[in-house]
Specification:
441 residues, alpha/beta, seven-stranded mixed β-sheet, four-stranded parallel β-sheet, 14 helices, 14 strands
């Protein structure tokens, strides 16, 4: 009757524990809707991977009216704090920044890249991040293959919303630098475009490839090996064409932007969010608030590149080191200012710059930037879902939403660092990590 793969107590599951017909989660403390009050002793009732209801008290198998053939599995998290699965709105799951990352782009086949990403996805899921947005995958269609394999249950990983290739002008931040011309044919970015009409084509091409969302580079970036700075790269009419085309095809669109000129041009063009937003000015703040666009600060990425640039063993080229030392330290201050001004914030780490699985370090940095622990959690749940356009199914533990939840030993509303050590991970009603005792009905 039971379709269960057992895990030894106190060992994280490498493979999922398959869900029974009904699943009951007993939560000692439950933050079902981040930002609202925390419930004491509550039960989450799940069927077919979706939340049926949240009840006060610990619901028993006998009190759950089921068909005689139904199976019921109960998870005892009565000594834990339970909250929605976390959402990271900015990762690059098929890549990892290190001294060999430049070589891997030409050494790894596309299947090897997908498998590399699969390992990163597993690590990210067991860290408590049940949903991610990939904003630029390498290896051709590797990111789409990985997304679909996870959706079909072939491999464990967070649900992925993938942007495909980054939309970038020729020579811009989204085009790799430092390779011979013939090597560029191997690592070709299908999102390169110049001029408004060509940019419409590039966006349509990503949608044809099955991109869920669109990302473009409004400005230069830190890790491109060129001394082009971090100012605006796409012209205003090109940005307007990108955003208009993406929206006409039902895709949200986000812009990588550091300097104020690019941030403001992107916001005027109607983007749904800005990644980094390092040097936002007063006009940027006004535009954020008037358009309702999210800022995804990626503070962890800034701290990481500054650390690498300042190391005596840094593998960065000089142009990259110079930009990293200028951009990295600014991100906390910019986030503090944006938060004080009422700009909407969504969680994102730019993981691949930092190590996959360490995504939760961003919470502490957000608190350092002035957010309360609860506000930081909201960025990775309620706001994270809204930023993806997925508030109907993600971000809270309510009836009709995906049964994505995690549990920690401690109170993240008092200390966000407890989110660095997640004890229990469930995605769509399936358990992928289980340290807590499970009680059999």
């Amino acid at each position: 009757m039971r379709r269960i793969l057992l895990c030894i107590a106190s060992i994280a599951c490498a493979w999922p524990v398959l869900a029974a017909d009904y699943v009951i989660v007993h939560a000692g403390r439950l933050m079902d809707i981040p930002g609202n009050s925390v419930k004491q002793k509550a039960s989450v009732i799940i069927r077919d991977g979706m939340i049926v209801t949240v009840e006060h008290g610990f619901v028993t198998t006998d009190s759950l009216l089921t068909d005689s053939t139904d199976t019921v599995e109960t998870y005892d998290l009565s000594n834990h704090f339970v909250l929605p699965g976390l959402i990271d709105g900015h990762v690059h799951i098929t890549d990892q920044l290190d001294a060999r990352s430049k070589l891997r782009r030409v050494e790894h086949s596309h299947p090897a890249t997908a498998l590399f990403g699969a390992n990163n996805a597993r690590i990210t899921l067991t860290a408590g991040f049940t949903t991610i947005r990939d904003l630029g995958g390498r290896g051709g269609d590797s990111i789409f293959a990985l997304r679909d394999a996870i959706d079909q249950g072939y491999i464990p990983g967070p649900r992925i919303f993938a942007a495909g290739d980054v939309i970038s002008p020729t020579g811009g931040h989204g085009q790799r630098h430092g390779y011979r011309d013939d090597v560029f044919a191997v690592i070709k970015n299908t999102g390169i475009c110049d001029g408004a009409d060509d940019c419409r084509r590039a966006v349509r091409n990503q949608v044809r490839r099955s991109a869920d969302q669109i990302k473009f580079v409004s400005t230069g970036g830190v890790l491109s090996e060129t001394a082009a700075g971090t100012g605006q790269q796409f012209f205003d009419d090109e940005q307007e064409a990108i955003v208009e085309t993406a929206h006409s095809l039902g895709r949200k669109v986000t812009a990588h932007a550091h300097n104020a000129d690019g941030i403001n041009a992107s916001l005027r063009a109607g983007v749904d969010s800005i990644e980094h937003g390092t040097f936002a000015n007063d006009e940027s703040i006004r535009l954020f608030k008037s358009t309702g666009a999210y800022l995804v600060p990626t503070i962890l990425a800034g701290i990481t590149v500054a650390e690498i640039a300042g190391s005596e063993n840094s593998f960065f080229a000089k142009a990259v080191r110079d930009k990293a030392m200028r951009v990295g330290p600014q991100l906390i201050e910019n986030t503090r200012r944006a938060h004080r001004s009422g700009v909407r914030l969504a969680f994102g780490t730019d993981s691949y710059v930092s190590q996959h699985g360490e995504n939760a370090r961003e919470f502490g940095l957000l608190v350092e930037a002035g957010l309360t622990p609860i506000e930081a959690i909201v960025t990775a749940t309620v706001n994270g879902a809204d930023n993806l356009g997925q508030s109907d199914t993600l971000g809270t533990l309510e009836s009709g939403k995906h049964a994505d939840l995690i549990a920690v030993d401690g109170d993240p509303t008092a200390d966000v660092d407890v989110l660095l050590d997640v004890d229990f991970v469930m995605k769509a009603g399936v358990v992928y990590k289980h340290y807590a005792d499970r009680s059999e009905p």
